Amino acid sequence: MNRNPGILFALPLIAFMLVLFAAPMVIVGWYSLMPARTFELGANVSLDNYRTIFAGGYERPLMWSVIGATLTTAITAVLAWPTAKILHRYAGGWATLVTALIALPIFISESVRLFGMWLFLMPGGGILAGTLTELFGVRIGNILNTRFATLLGMVYIHFPFMLFPLLLGVGMIPADRVEAARDLGANGWAVFREVELPLAAPGLLIGGLLVFVLCLGANAEAAILGGRAVTVITAAIEQRFNYAQDWPSGAALTVLVILATAILVFPLLKRIDLGRIIRR
After folding, report:
1. pLDDT single digits (tens) 199-258
2. Residue ranges of domains in the chain
């Protein structure tokens, strides 16, 4: 009898995924069907929590989270593309040092980095305001506690998650194809649109998914830099679980975020050739 050893070796991982990933999501989904402000799992099942969510104005925090995640993904992609091109072109030497400096903050607590940015943006005595006043005599208004500060923090925190997958995607562009396109008379925009972007698309999609999903669940940027100028969906979920002690409503909000994420992620995953990326 032939046995597939791969299945046996995968059993611990399958059990790990079922216990620590699938089971919590099932519990959260079931909890969302329980009556509001209850801690039981055996009460009557209903969709009242979902009706309350749509009637209670929670679509606004979800909208702000989606808009912030979309803008952050677009901005980081625009910034990461030329950065990835330069780092790939000058790989080795100083480019390696720059890559390490970009990666290093990932290993530092997000809150620490955001408080450092808070000091940088602080009005009056902040690094940015003080430098502009001292060198150029320019006085800027208060950037903190605004939606712009929240967006700036999200771009700062999540930029590496776009850059490194895109750096992998740029590395999948054969130089001879670019040279062939230029020899045939293609200008820079045509080379980018017809050659570079399609070939680097897997890295761009992976980076986009990482940034969007992480930003959709981001909360610290709005709390530290935005001063709650904008309420994101994760803050609403935290409020339902902690302050309101309404776990079923918080679970229902969580299920909606999971569904919104799945609707975006799974169709895009089908467009990514992971086998080709791994072979590279």
Report:
1. 888 889 999 999 999 999 888 998 888 887 788 899 889 888 888 888 999 999 999 999
2. 59-279
Residue indicated by tokens 């901005």? 75
8 A C-beta contact, residue 32 and residue 226: no
- Third-level CATH fold of 59-279: MetI-like fold (1.10.3720)
DSSP states of 205-218: HHHHHHHHHHHHT-
Please say whether the beta carbons of 207 and 162 come within 8 A: yes
Which tokens is 246 given? 């309404």
Q: From 59, 18, 55, 52, select the one nearest 33 (Cα to Cα).
A: 52
User: Residue 66: how many CB atoms within 10 A of its CB?
Assistant: 18
137: buried, middle or exposed (CB in 10 Å: 19+, 13-18, 0-12)?
exposed
Contacts of 198 (CB under 8 A, 6+ apart): none
pTM of the predicted protein model? 0.85
